Amino acid sequence: MGLLSDPNRRRALINLLTRLNAPICALCYFAGVCWFMGLAFEPFTLRTYMSENAMGSTMVEERFPSGERALATGKEFAAHKKKVGGMPVDWLVKTMQAQGLEVFTQSFSRTLPFPDENKERYIVKGTNVYGILRAPRAPRTEALVLSAPCSPGDNNNQAVGLLLGLAHYFRSQVFWAKDIIFLVNEHDLIGMQAWLESYHHTNTTGMDWSPLQGRGGSIQAALSLELSSDVITSLDIILEGLNGQLPNLDLANLFYAFCQKIGVLCTIQGRLQRNDWDSVSGYSHAVQTMMLMVMKQASGRPWGDHGLFLRYHIEAATIKGINSFRQYKTDITTVGRLLEGMFRKLNNLLERLHQSYFFYLMPSLSHFVSIGYYMPAFGLLAVILLLRALDLWVQLVSPPAVAADGVGDIAQQSSPGVLSVLTPLVISHLTGAALYILPTRFQEIAVEHFPVSETEAVVLTAIAVYTAGLALPHNTHRLLSGEGTEQGWRVLKLVAVLYLAVLLGCTALINFSLGFILALTLVPVAAFVTPHVPKTLSAVVLVILSPAFTLLFSVFFFQELEEMPVSFQDGWLLYLSVISQGILDHYLYGSLVYPLIALMVYPCWLLFWNILFWK
Amino acid sequence: MAAPRCSRCACLLLVFIYSLYVVVISEEPTPGNEQHASVVENPQTAAETEKQPTEERRWEATQVDETVPDDAAANKQDLPVPDSVLTSTPPLKDEFQEELVIRPLHSGDIYASFQFRTVWETDFTRGSKVSHYRLFPKSLGQVISKFSVRELHISFTQGYWRTMQWGQPYLPSPPGAELWVWFQDTVTDVDATWKELTNVLSGIFCASLNFIDSTNTVEPSASFKPLGIANGTDHRFLRYATLPREIVCTENLTPWKKLLPCGSKAGLAVLLKSEKLFHSSFHSQAVHIRPVCQDEPCKATSLELRQTLNVVFDLHASGQGKREWSLFKMFSRTLTEACPLASSSKIYIDVTDNPEEDQFELSPATHLLSQAVVLGDRRTFSVYDLTQQVTFGTVRSLNVLIRWKSTEGDMLRPLLHAERYVAGYGLQTGEIHTLMYNNHPFRSFPVLLLDSVPWYLRLYVHTLTVTSKGKDNKPSYIHYQPSKDRMRPHLLEMLVQLPPHSVTEVTVQFERALLKWTEYTPDPNHGFYVGSSVVSALVPSTVAMNTNITKEQPLFSTFFPTKEESSYFIRVYTEPLLVNLPTPDFSMPYNVICLTCTVVAVGYGSLYNLLTRSFQVEEPNPGLAKRIANVIRRMRGVPPL
Predict the structure, then answer these.
(1) ipTM confidence score
(2) Does A53-272+301-365 carry CATH code 3.40.630.10?
């Protein structure tokens, strides 16, 4: 403390920080990236372990016998599905009733803000069917959910078959302490959203649904099942949910523990675990797995039906059967046993899953990086912003030292600054608001006047507004406050840098991946932009590091990670569809990434653009 | 020694005279004394000669009440002579009945309801000390007299009654433990008595009733009226509490069984084996004590103790696809005898839905049939009378068997049905929704809704809405008692008219309170329970609803529905709620300590540093030579340069 209370030393420290600001910033950036890349290195990570005692040491035996029968049921379901051309509601109701469940149906309808071209739907009407297995001698206070989506085509029939098989088997057991809800949802996420909103009687997205007739109390955990083949080679667990929320790590641990016990190959992000962490290829494998998780989490969309449960504080994951051309095959009975085991352990829970981590990254299924380890990577990037802000502050305060006489001078110099700061701030936020509102509002007009479909209209309007934003706001302050001063841009940059720091900090707390990716691109922009750097080159760099381009790069990078590289042409189309999906996610499920980018991040970036063209 | 003997003689004489008097009045040729003796020896036969002995008993009882106190007063200095009372008073003051009703349920499950009833012609209210107990359990009798209890209802339930599948139960009860007590109006400090009573009952029934305190006790103004005879219904003498979290298991069953006169040694109680009773879908046991009329004119009251046990066995969990039930399969016992102390011992099987034996088959067959209007519906029962040796047949054991023939049906639509859930997400606010279904096609009826919500859910009463069929439904009576933090819960009672064929939704928003960190339960992340809300209603009877009754009954009897059958009282309990409260991370105190210590150390340290430091102008450093010179000078004792 003597360091700060001593004016000499403080001055020395500040001198050091301002003099060496650029190298320190570069060093921090480099260290942050290195730290992040180091997270995937196995010796730096922790092994997963079961924290919840209720699920840890208790023994359960898995005896699910009737995989063949489940497959037969699945085939029957497929036949009925084909006959009806959608969800075979009557058949499902009858089948579930025959198994002794309390069966209820729920109908819902939703008109999307604009047609979803990926899934080819616009006006969605559907019915969810669910059966409740009432636990004996339980007072209907707690429930578990097993869900399987009724997908179009030949997908997921086995999942529904297994769900019904498990329902039949579970019904004859006596050890249940929580009600178990078996849910078959139509139109995947939309159906799930309707069911969950109705269960909790909320309406966040303006969907029409009929109220539920039967409930099972507060849902403690949920698993969603996706199986599309009779035999599988491995099971994949999907954790990333809406807005990058993750279920409690214990759920992943439970899955891993049972895969180990039963001897099923298990993957995360579709990638097997490797033991050769010390080799380069092993390390890069871990990095890729982790990067996939980071990319998926940053996207903020639910990557499976489980993703919507997390909003309601229900721990949920999707388990997906993968059938590739490996030798190792697992039949459906084994999958059934695995699910039985997981449900029995969840049934044993005395409290909600809360013991383990809610914030983590997983470079492999057996290792994780907790928030305490990954936050420094972000912190190192964020500290650059603070250093720059300090530097600017010192620059703003110290030049009067030449004039020496005073306070009035500073006030005089910075008073026009208030308007010159406020104007770009307001204008860039208005542009952001336009980016948020216009695409969906103006789709009709766009469709009338241009030869495009509604979806294209929305995406192209978004891109147009984005681009127009680059041309519009800079130098507008001159209309109000005349010539921009040297002091003016410094104040503006100080505000912008602090704004960015707060924005990124908050984002990273909620969704680390999104915060980190944004920080990776925006922090260099914030650090180097001044009106005195070469204009053209800087403008190019600035545009390349803008949020839209970050998204474009992410699309290519993600395809690369998924081992499905695309050409530029396809990539561009994919980019457009990703934008439309992002907007749809916001309107359908309440994802916050699109409004965050449009209303906060983009205006913030525009401020830096403004500074570059300061005159 | 003369005095007691004398009094004994007097007493006997009085008895004799009185009995003679009775005989003369009733003009009955049977000698009264003889009949006494026979009844005493063989209580089972009491049922046959029911009218006569009851009338006599009434006389006897009044006589004893009059004579004994006089007697005691007469020789107060001497030892009290219980012997004389015993021999002189005709001991048929109490009576025990046992009964088992088996109802094959719509869903294919089976419902068994035991009732054990002890009626004792005694009156604790008079203040006379009762010390002799025969059939009535002494532990309860002492509790009743000590705490001046007028009525006591206690139930322990594990599981939730599924109205939609099972119809209405004979005796409804909420999940967990429920206790409601009417005290005598002589009790001055009801709350203290209540507190003490719950602690005593907690010991008797081996349950956590001692967790009943002011934070979960309410005084309902309308929902819980006395079930026995009562003079006043001032609800200041009523206390009602539920413990939705209470787990019921064998340790509660054993003390309950011990209250029975035959224990679990004989009679229907041999069926009560815990390993089977707790292998079921629903289990509920209850004790109801209330004063009832002794006879028609109701000049005196007797005390009724009803012990009930309801259990539902699951079709799917125990049968391997075979739909077959028997006493042995349900209880792993068969019956060989009635309880010797019981005046009646019967098994009823509900065969209403089975007139042509197309639903299920019953064996051994019985010709005894009985009809009763239960819950507004006329039901037919096959009766097995265990006091008759014929019932047990040649194998000397009774094993009633029900074999199903049809498949299980759809869900029922009971006339009144209620459910409740918590809406919303997040840990700040929420909304309690209570749904009440009136499935009657054309009659509306009023229901009384009682909600008792713990204080840590802060109800926003201005958000209370009652809607049915999309329209606002104004309750005709609302009694609301706001909560006091850590003192008492919210109490909300409403009288709502349910329109026919409708769903009425009552919603109220709440805020979740932050508890003090010691107030959390050991498992705070499990959530906190909110007890069931209680819906009490007079429901139009299905007998009255039936428009096609002319078939079975003579025409003259069916034009106006009879008043007794036009509606019946039921009580429906909703499910309890499990609500998560904002829960701190309990390792947090450690973090807080670390953090505050650091902050205090840094903050205080620097401040202290600034305060205690003496600031002085820094002199330029003396050169090395000068410093060396100074050291040398100090050694020499000369002041430095």
Answers:
(1) 0.88
(2) yes
